[in-house]
TrEMBL record:
<feature type="transmembrane region" description="Helical">
    <location>
        <begin position="307"/>
        <end position="324"/>
    </location>
</feature>
<feature type="binding site">
    <location>
        <position position="309"/>
    </location>
    <ligand>
        <name>Zn(2+)</name>
    </ligand>
</feature>
<keyword id="KW-0862">Zinc</keyword>
<keyword id="KW-0479">Metal-binding</keyword>
<keyword id="KW-0812">Transmembrane</keyword>
<comment type="similarity">
    <text>Belongs to the ADIPOR family.</text>
</comment>
<feature type="transmembrane region" description="Helical">
    <location>
        <begin position="236"/>
        <end position="256"/>
    </location>
</feature>
<feature type="binding site">
    <location>
        <position position="159"/>
    </location>
    <ligand>
        <name>Zn(2+)</name>
    </ligand>
</feature>
<dbReference type="GO" id="GO:0033211">
    <property type="term" value="P:adiponectin-activated signaling pathway"/>
</dbReference>
<feature type="transmembrane region" description="Helical">
    <location>
        <begin position="139"/>
        <end position="163"/>
    </location>
</feature>
<feature type="transmembrane region" description="Helical">
    <location>
        <begin position="106"/>
        <end position="127"/>
    </location>
</feature>
<feature type="transmembrane region" description="Helical">
    <location>
        <begin position="205"/>
        <end position="224"/>
    </location>
</feature>
<dbReference type="GO" id="GO:0038023">
    <property type="term" value="F:signaling receptor activity"/>
</dbReference>
<keyword id="KW-0472">Membrane</keyword>
<dbReference type="InterPro" id="IPR004254">
    <property type="entry name" value="AdipoR/HlyIII-related"/>
</dbReference>
<feature type="binding site">
    <location>
        <position position="305"/>
    </location>
    <ligand>
        <name>Zn(2+)</name>
    </ligand>
</feature>
<dbReference type="GO" id="GO:0046872">
    <property type="term" value="F:metal ion binding"/>
</dbReference>
């Protein structure tokens, strides 16, 4: 309610500014401050509501790297085509079907997830006649498929929702990195099981070491700074080191059996190819090649992260093929372990 004698300035039907002292004019600075701030806040709220509505309806547009918030800035060589922050899981999942910098990262591991889920189910449903120790060997293969499925599912989920918010991005990045460690650990299990099938003691030692190193990598991955761009090379180094821990059992296997036997019936050629794929992918990811040399040219397709994803899926499939061949060789030996068998 306005007192009698007060001077008022009307702004239409939205606001009225009065000077209760009765002066003819309200102080100029106070007029500007009182009128401008509410209008600015109102316009900001309208813009925010409009943006959230567009995001919810899937009508957002990609934005350049330099306008991203700091928590979404990961690769400064990808200049255009980024998703804006989208505080809606519905919008994040709808973005799977849009073209942006994460489209390739999502689909490479989403399709890989479906592939290994189907392969895992088919392997688990194979008749027991294809195994020497059905329950034990299905558990061994199951560990590999569990690691692969978890790794690929955590990966495509992270790349789908990491633009939701900083908290969601941090949480899913930890799952993503943990999944990589689980894949590496799971890959070691069937290989060590069949390679050292007739030598249970070294098999147990190597499996224990791999599990300790894998769990250590998962613990390190829970460090908040581990996911920052600054520690990109650290991430690659941790997982590369975990994978290279297989060098020792590989040398043991090769020396005990001889190079020729290890690379033929021992399937070391396939495992060597798998290692080359993993190392190449990790190296390209850490160095951000090829976009480092052509900024803005690989924003959508063929960036280093996508190449890394493709090589991970291919390497996991090569590993499965090699282990399957090794399992068939073991099955073909009468009695499982003979004087001519591996180890």
């Amino acid at each position: 309610m306005v007192e009698a004698g007060a001077s008022c300035i009307s702004g239409g039907d939205r606001w009225v500014l009065c000077d209760p002292s009765g002066r003819d004019e309200a102080p100029e600075e106070e007029v500007v401050r009182v009128l401008t701030l509410p209008l600015q806040a109102h316009h900001a709220m309208e813009k925010m509501e409009e943006f959230v509505y567009k995001v919810w309806e899937g009508r957002w547009r990609v934005i350049p790297y330099d306008v991203l918030p700091d928590w979404l800035k990961d690769n400064d060589y990808l200049l255009h085509g980024h998703r804006p922050p989208m505080p809606s899981f519905r919008a994040c999942f709808k973005s799977i079907f849009r073209i942006h910098t994460e489209t390739g990262n999502i689909w490479t591991h989403l399709l890989g997830f479906v592939l290994f889920l189907c392969l895992g189910i088919l392997t688990m449903l194979r008749p027991n006649m294809y195994f020497m120790a059905p329950l034990q060997e299905k558990v061994v293969f199951g560990m590999f498929f569990l690691g692969a499925v978890l790794c690929l599912s955590f990966s495509w989920l992270f790349h789908t929702v990491y633009c939701h918010s900083e908290k969601v991005s941090r949480t899913f990045s930890k799952l993503d990195y943990s999944g990589i460690a689980l894949l590496i650990m799971g890959s070691f299990v069937p290989w060590l099981y069949y390679s050292f099938y007739c030598s249970p003691q070294p098999r147990l030692i190597y499996l224990s070491i791999v599990c300790v190193l894998g769990i250590s990598a998962i613990i390190v991955a829970q460090w908040d700074r581990f996911a920052t761009p600054k520690h990109r090379q650290t991430r690659a180094g941790v997982f590369l080191g975990l994978g290279l821990s297989g060098v020792v059992p590989t040398m043991h296997f090769t020396i005990a059996e001889g190079f020729v036997k290890a690379t033929t019936v021992g399937q070391m050629g396939w495992f060597f190819l798998m290692a080359v794929m993993y190392i190449t992918g990790a190296g390209l990811y850490a160095a951000r090649i090829p976009e480092r040399f052509f900024p803005g040219k690989f924003d959508i397709w063929f960036q280093s992260h996508q190449i890394f994803h493709v090589l991970v899926v291919a390497a996991a499939f090569v590993h499965f093929y090699g282990v399957s061949n090794l399992q068939e060789f073991r099955y073909g030996l009468e009695g499982g372990c003979t004087d001519d068998s591996l180890l």
